[in-house]
Amino acid sequence: MARQSVTQHLNLLIDAVKRRAEETAMTTTEEFPDFVYVTYIRATPQQVWDALTDPEITQRYWDGVAVVSDWQVGSSWAHHKGGPDGKADVWGKILETDPPRKLVFTFQPIDQDLEDEGSIASYLIEQSGEVVKLTVTHTNFADAGLHTGISKGWPAVLAGLKSYLETGQALPDDSWDMAVR
Hints:
Elements: H1 2-27, E1 35-42, H2 45-53, H3 55-61, E2 65-69, E3 76-81, E4 87-98, E5 102-109, E6 119-128, E7 131-139, H4 144-167, H5 174-179
């Protein structure tokens, strides 16, 4: 009799956990998970900051993309394919800047108004000895396509950044073919 009671109690407990999990899954409003990528780079925080914000450097490892801005809160930034004077395809607004430690900005298609809500990306640069821990976080995705593109693009960008800073050379062009094309 006691054994049956324990079994019934466990079944009730399992049913309660199942109901709770289903209710949570049905009421969760976050449709797409945040993207977080952490890498460790043998560099200084200033070198990492410069490599992320200087258009002459970004185009060396970012598949020819020059990232252009004055990096002041409220200013815009843009991806320019083929160099600083190339066609912009992505842009956003600077939300927070603390060189060379932190940068937060919106990220949206060039045809979306800067005042419209975009996704949000951030760089957190932390030094430990000769190594920098770079954490890139990207949130607030509008759709699955953007989430998929970001999930493929950031790892390629950050691998290129790491290679460039540690060796002075970007990854070969075919690494972009593997990642995002």
